[in-house]
Amino acid sequence: MINKKIFIYILFLFVGNLFAQNTPFTVVIDAGHGGRDPGALGAISQEKKINLDVALKLGNLIEKNHKDVKVLYTRKNDTYLTVFERAELANKNKANLFISIHANATKDKKVCGTETFVFGLSKSKSNLDVAMRENSVILLEDDYKTRYEGFDPTSVESYIMFEFMQNKYMERSVWFASNIQDKFTNDCKRGNRGVKESELIVLHRSACPGVLVELGFITNPAEEKYMASAKGQNELAAAISNAFDAYKRDYDKKSGITTVTSNGATNNNKDKPVFKVQVAASKTELKTNDKTFKGVRNIDVYIEGGVYKYTTGDTTDYNKIVKTKNSLQSKFPDAFIIAFLGDRKIPVNEAKAISEK
Ligand SMILES: [Zn+2]
Question: Cα of 31 to ligand 1 centre, how many Å?
């Protein structure tokens, strides 16, 4: 729940290089609340417990699916942490992505659905009012003045001084948040309240992309039951994990990191162009066994302009890819050949010319 509790994530990352390649991709998973702060209270559960359960399940999935990702947790048990400590973990470890897990609450028991916040500074008055009210809980922390470097959560000026926050991570955060909402809607059949903005107070230079996920309303009996159940928690964690997969794949493409394709082959041939046959494109991510692929195996994916594009075949031999394309003629009459040099998509003619050298 973010309306009544404190959510100032002070992520003052000193190195703002989003695509630094020498350190492993680091994701910080933050189970909201904990210890003496239970978060929102439901009829049968407490928010802090739901947050922790889903956070741990999410971390397990990411660890299992991405050997190259460092997963850090702000808490792995029922302990109280200040926002400073949560932020410091991300800061100290030069996190690439911050995922905070929460459950929502409101007076109206009928209200339900998921929503994901991206961290940004809303400029509208009403949002600012909300932010000041939410963040004023900071005053409850005994030594907030030293911790937050004089930041006064009740002063408009304090917010204005943070207006320099760059939007460079905003786009990434929104893309990730939209993906999470898509998965919640399609995979978990949850109501979709959309992607929203929340306030991130950033000191120093820059923050990493980050989202705050509201899994559902603990005040809605059906949703509380779902969130408190192992089935619901597994589904919610899997949905966020799937969104993370897409985020990481896109990150790797942008970083030029060698990616492991779905059939286990690695596309690490940097000198020779690789030819593939593109068979489908989709705004949402599809599983490789989706009926769209009509039983064709070895489906690979790349993301371009926010669209998932699916390919099959992977060869440096142009004649071979023509054969592959012809063999797919009946199933995919519109399929066409594309080419990559390393992870960069290049025109097929250019690729052929390089190949023939
Ligand atoms: Zn919360």
Answer: 9
